[in-house]
């Protein structure tokens, strides 16, 4: 792994750690807003049933609250995690570019699915996440498809230069 890749991994990891701490802190405000527990303490309700006290709230629900009402740091978390995944995927799959294109397209498809889960949210934070998921998904699928089309164009032009274009069984 090159020095540039290591620096990118370190910087993206530091951004992730910082934004996670900040989002966790901002999301801890959920403990002071009992009327929001029913709608935001999703994981606590799954694990513990009805949330009746601030001590029933799981830490992961802090991130849900921050995402809904203070989305800056959760968005930085999303971007840094996405960058880390793509960077690790690139480093691992750079010897096989075709698999990396599938990898990018798969991640993009996952983001498109995630955008569907938050598409109908009334909060500004989840609307921002909807747009972010949608844009990242379209971008990654587009990059993967463009890579495949670019390979196909290069292969076709090489074949035409060599005079080896085959037109089905009639050639």
UniProtKB/TrEMBL annotation:
The chain crosses the membrane at residues 73-93, 100-118, 124-149. InterPro entries: DUF4306 (IPR025440). Keywords: Membrane, Transmembrane, Transmembrane helix. Pfam families: DUF4306. The keyword Membrane applies. This is YjdJ family protein.
């Amino acid at each position: 792994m090159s020095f540039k890749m290591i620096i990118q991994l370190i910087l993206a990891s530091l951004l992730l750690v910082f934004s996670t701490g900040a989002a966790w802190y901002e999301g801890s405000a959920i403990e002071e807003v009992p009327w929001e527990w029913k709608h935001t303490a999703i994981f606590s309700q799954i694990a513990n049933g009805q949330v009746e006290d601030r001590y029933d709230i799981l830490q992961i629900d802090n991130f849900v609250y921050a995402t809904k009402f203070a989305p800056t740091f959760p968005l930085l978390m999303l971007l840094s995690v996405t960058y880390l995944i793509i960077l690790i995927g690139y480093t691992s799959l750079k010897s096989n570019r075709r698999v990396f294109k599938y990898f990018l397209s798969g991640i993009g498809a996952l983001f498109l699915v995630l955008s569907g889960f938050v598409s109908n949210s009334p909060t500004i934070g989840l609307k921002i996440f909807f747009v972010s998921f949608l844009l990242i998904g379209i971008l990654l699928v587009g990059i993967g498809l463009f890579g495949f089309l670019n390979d196909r164009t290069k292969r076709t032009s090489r074949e035409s230069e060599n005079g080896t274009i085959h037109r089905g069984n009639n050639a």
